[in-house]
Structure formats: C-alpha cells, structure tokens
Amino acid sequence: MSNNLKRNTAKERRIARVRAVVHGTSERPRLAVARSLKHISAQVIDDVTGKTLAAAADRDVEAKGKKKSEVAVLVGKLIAERAKAKGVTTVVFDRRDKRYHGRVKAVADGAREAGLIF
Predict the structure, then answer these.
(1) Distance between CA atoms of residues 3 and 87, nearest Å
(2) What is the pLDDT of residues 53-72, one digit of tens each?
(3) Considering its fold, how many domains does the chain have in total?
(4) In a domain, 34, yes or no
C-alpha cells in the first residue's frame, strides 16, 4: 500500500468518525470547516435536504497583511452573518478530519463572536 493511499484512508476514517456523531438538521444545520495549507472556508449545511445554506471563504474577506488565523476569525464572522441572514442561529460544528485548534478553532471563535450558537 502506498503512502498516499494510507494517508487518504486514514483521513477518510477520521472524517467518518466525526460525522458519526455530528448530524445537521433543518433546525440545527452543520457548520463544516475546510482547511488547506493556504486557504480556509466554511459552509452551513442542512443534511436533511443536502443543501448548503451559507458559505464563506478567505477569498471573500479582506486578507491583505493579516495572519492566516486572523483571516480565519473573519471567515467565521462572515459565515455567521450569512447564516443569520438565512434565519440560522444554532449550528453543530464539523471540524472534519482536522484537530480543533489553530485556524479551525479561530473560525469557530469568530462565528461565536458574531452570534452563532454551538
């Protein structure tokens, strides 16, 4: 088994482990955070209908001269504003395969500051 295959299999297992516990509903959708080495994005997803209610990414905020963690806080605030505009006030947080620290935690903190409850 190649290293890439092992890595992808382990990643899929981590995602499945988190998703076994985290379910989004119409009243309480899922806030999923996707992070790469350069970018970060978030989506509010209703798993019952399979629809994305709101989305935000680092490309949507003014990131010039800011650290990546500061940009992540801005993404969290933006996703919270967009979700609240759609009538969503409470969510469940889906960190996917990432640990809850650094930029993933910064998105959650920014969303909480802007008024999302989770």
Answers:
(1) 44
(2) 999 999 999 989 999 999 99
(3) 1
(4) yes
Tokens linked to 91: 């969510």
Domain of 69 in residue numbering reads as 3-113
Residue 10: φ, ψ to 5°: -65, -40
Token readout for 92 is 């469940």
* Token digits of residue 112: 């909480």
Report yes or no: 64 and 34 within 8 Å, Cβ to Cβ: no
- Is residue 118 in some structural domain? no
User: Tens of pLDDT along 57-111?
Assistant: 999 999 899 999 999 999 999 999 999 999 999 999 999 999 999 999 999 999 9
Q: CA–CA separation, 76 vs 43, rounded Å?
A: 10
Q: Is the dihedral of CA 88, 53, 80, 25 positive or negative?
A: positive
Euclidean distance between CA atoms 93 and 95, whole angstroms? 6
Enter the DSSP assignment of 59: G
Give the C-alpha separation, 114 to 69, whole Å.
16
